[in-house]
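Q: Sequence in, structure out?
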Amino acid sequence: MDVKPIIDKKIWDTWVAARKEHSFLQSWIWGECNTELGDEALRVGLFDGERIVAVAQVLTIHARRGTFYFIPHGPVCDEVATSDEKALFQIFETLVQYLRKEAQTESKKQKRRERISFIRFSPQLIDNPVLQSVFRKLSLRPAPMHMHAERSWLLDITPPEKTLLTNMRKANRYNIKKAEREGVIVTQGKNKNDIEQFHQLFETFAEKKSFVAFSKNYVLSEYEHFARDNNILLFIARHGDNILAMAMIIFSGSTAFYHQSLSTGLSPEKQGSYLMLWEAIREAKKRGCVTFNFWGIAPQGDRKHPWAGLTFFKTGFGGYERNYIHAHDLPLTQRYWVNYIIESVRRIKRGF
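A: Exactly. Output:
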């Protein structure tokens, strides 16, 4: 199996979008966005002859706790390979060997503190004994915390709207209709000012919910990059002059992703969030999407989890749970353990 860089955006995105399990985190645009923010993207394909078996968009993350390779929701593998332990092992083994060499080459160019200290794999692959066995054989260890959604809630949006409404939790359906009766209006943000306002409100929302918001540059870069191909929309729920809720939806292949959202807390009885999300689902249907990905949820029955309330909201729209394998690390230097301790403390503080 050979590893080769892929430099053609169309080839990359076409192959990734054709996979049943894929994420915008492995889209070409996401790599461009991160590169602009300082985390370079390396895109490689694993080939069996001329056939692509898997691809991996590898980000070089520069953090105060150290520099490392991160493959968010990747590698993306051919469906045939994911059902065969031998093939899956070969993909990850080949990628590990390649990235080890890349890390050694990079380390020779950098100061000691900038050396790649570990590789983090966070594939969007269903957690099962086969994959766990592959990771153990390669000496990958569970990461101290996750960086992106690993337990997600998905909805098949191919049925008619009437059927989707019928399959919702009764309370969700009622709240959508109530928002309409109360005069809530859902519009789409069209300019930079809307995105800046979203970030300002998101910072306030994050402070109330005790988590760290993405930076303004991060939010603006994400929107501007995906907007070039009309693959992102900002939905805004309003009642009169008040903004009730906002959500950023990313479209990638046949899937719409409910990536970032907030509720302002104004007029909660108007149920603006419910109507806003329903309009996002309707837009995804219009675009020909097959799946609506609600992003991360809490473990079933964990009422103390920070996402418990949000999970109840999301699951009320109908759908099913997807559990992907937890992120795993391959330590390359002793500095990895500094990162391990820092992330372990952060996980505990955040209640995960």
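Residues 2-148+324-350 form a domain with the Aminopeptidase fold (CATH 3.40.630.30).
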